[in-house]
Design a protein that fits this description.
Oligomer: single chain
Number of strands: 2
Shape: elongated
Strand content: 15-25%
Structural class: alpha+beta
Largest sheet: 2 strands, antiparallel
Number of domains: 1
Distance between the termini: 24 Å
């Protein structure tokens, strides 16, 4: 969470696609037909401006009050990114009890 820290890790289950084409697991309708707390339908027919979604199976999560961070931790404003900073990776593996 931007400015808060890391609150979860998971496994990608569905590759990225426009929100209008994304069907959540165990659903028989598109994401935009589901009850959402945010409007993701703006620019739904414009691939350059629409919301994109990736499916994730969350393996371990923490409430925002327990977000994991330290001074100097790698952070990126994007929701998803490839972590390459070894100190951050080592820290998160310990905090989330992840084994290689």
């Amino acid at each position: 969470m931007k400015g808060i820290g890391y609150v979860g890790y998971g496994e990608v289950t569905q590759e990225a696609r426009p929100a209008k084409d994304f069907i959540p697991n165990k659903q028989n309708k598109s994401l935009l037909e589901c009850k959402l707390s945010a409007d993701m339908s703006h620019h739904k027919n414009d691939l350059d401006k629409c919301e994109w979604v990736v499916g994730v199976k969350w393996i371990k999560t923490f409430p925002r009050e327990q977000a994991k961070k330290y001074s100097g931790i790698f952070a990126n404003q994007n929701i998803v990114c490839k972590l390459r900073d070894q100190n951050t990776l080592d820290f998160l593996r310990r905090e989330f009890s992840v084994r290689d």
